[in-house]
Amino acid sequence: MIIRNSAALIPLILLFTAVSIPIVALKKKQIAFFMVMIATSLSVIVSFYNIFRVLKVGTIHYHFGGWIPPIGIEYVLDPLSSFICLVINVIALLVLIHSKKIIEMESNIKSVPYYALVLLMLTGFNGIVLTGDFFNLYVFLEICSLAMYGLISVGGKQAPVAAFRYLIMGTVGGSFYLLGVGFLYIKTGSLNMADVRSIVPHLYNEPTVIVAISLMVIGFGIKMAVFPLHGWLPDAYTYAPTTSSALIAPTGTKIGAYAMLRILFFVFGVNYVSKTLHITDILAWLSAIGIIYGSIMAIAQKEMKRMLAYSSVSQIGYIGLGIGLCNPLGLIGAVLHVMNHAIMKACLFLVAGNYRVKLGHSNIFKLNDNIRKKMPWTTAAFTVAALSMVGIPPTLGFFSKWYLALGTIKNSSWIFLAVLLISSLLNAVYFFRVLEKVYLKPIKSNSLEEFNTLKNDKRDEVSSSALIPVLILSVALIVLGLLNTIIVKGIIEKMIPAGM
């Protein structure tokens, strides 16, 4: 029975645990961590089972209560949804392992409600990916959005303002999407994605349908943080607690990218969005601008978390560009970069968290080569992730950019190819300046006290619970890079929609 219901199992596990944590852990706060670990571990196990099941038997449709769509709500497990669920839940598990020590140090965070919010956010993420119903997607979108506002707001002094700004932008994005769904329902009479897909080709020339898809794309453009709709992102990622940043940055915007990809290609159709409405062309150009803008702004930052935040604006642009290219190679590059960026950004934000634990800051200009001696493994993990961000082989970052480059060549989009090359150089500028600080630059001391502090090069790594997830993520970037052909041939190529 459990196997037969595996498509619906992940959101149910996460939601049930989220509701149970405030009750069970009311007197013993330590229980909350173990409950969240059990829930996310089960989610990872089910995610692995689901993807192997899909690869073996094909797309799986799960109907709640036995009600057949379009009346009932449907969950859909296909190569795309099962792959994205696996990425989300694995990243969440590793970040939450790391969170135990960090949350203990951040006294303003109450662990019981915090972990409940984390699980609610993951419930929303998984629900968005799995659902085959437009309105059900909106419900999950609101669940994860409300949880994210809370997870961001418990950071530093500026975090509530950043969370409020995100709340305003997120509400606008959600409202745009809901309006689009309403317009679409008026013309099609259905909320089921598969049902709408069969109806909408007869309504392509209807202004209502054009308005609907435009509103939905703008709504998810805000959630995805596509340039110039990214204004909420830098402050949210910078001022949020380390665990929140490491959870939301790798996965939050990818949910928007997934929804954009699903709606454009799998509901409205490749030819309609690319040749009739030219939505993909607009997305590609905005993403290309965002790639350069985010990279330049990252260079200007002195705080590592803020640098990584603007870097995310650039990296989201890679995914948007891959979608906008609207060819198989571009799509492979986009999906591969979803996984690549999730791993890289989780690793980098966790490294920033480790620096804050041991150094009390993550200011780039305060780093020096003594840190390499004190925290060699953390610094090594940062180096691997940085090289992957730049796109150095054999890391996974090289191969996602390689497929994107092949996609631009296939379309003869030479400007986009130039953007990819220039952005890699810009990535090298802002990451190599950090590597220069921790590996090459000699110690410069302004006071005797500072000199004595820096002179002590005794190894002082973070605890194993904070170090192991970082090392796993960094090693994964190399291993998955070497195995990229297996991932592309075995999984991602099966996601390519009809007509592409």
Task: Report what the structure shows.
- The longest helix is centred in the last third of the chain and has 32 residues, at 328-359.
- This protein starts with 5 loop residues before the first helix and ends in a 10-residue tail after the last helix.
- The protein has a domain at 285-500.
- Helix 8 runs antiparallel to helix 10.
- 56% of the residues are buried.
- A two-stranded antiparallel sheet has the order 1-2.
- The radius of gyration is 22 Å and the shape is globular.
- It has 500 residues and is mainly alpha-helical.
- It has 21 helices and 2 strands.
List keywords for this structure.
21 helices, two-stranded antiparallel ribbon, 500 residues, globular, mainly alpha
Radius of gyration: 22 Å
Number of strands: 2
Distance between the termini: 37 Å
Order of helices and strands: HHEEHHHHHHHHHHHHHHHHHHH
Low-confidence stretches: 447-454
Strand content range: under 5%
- Secondary-structure content class: mainly alpha
Percent of residues in helical segments? Answer: over 70%
Mean pLDDT: 86
Strand order of the largest sheet: 1-2
What is the fold's blueprint, element by element?
Layout: H1 6-24, H2 30-57, E1 60-63, E2 74-77, H3 79-105, H4 111-130, H5 134-153, H6 159-188, H7 193-199, H8 207-224, H9 233-239, H10 242-268, H11 270-276, H12 279-299, H13 304-325, H14 328-359, H15 369-374, H16 376-390, H17 396-410, H18 414-440, H19 448-455, H20 464-482, H21 484-490
Antiparallel strand pairs: 1-2
Provide a short characterization of the protein structure.
Helix content is 76%, strand content 2%. The protein is mostly helical. The protein has a two-stranded antiparallel sheet with strand order 1-2.
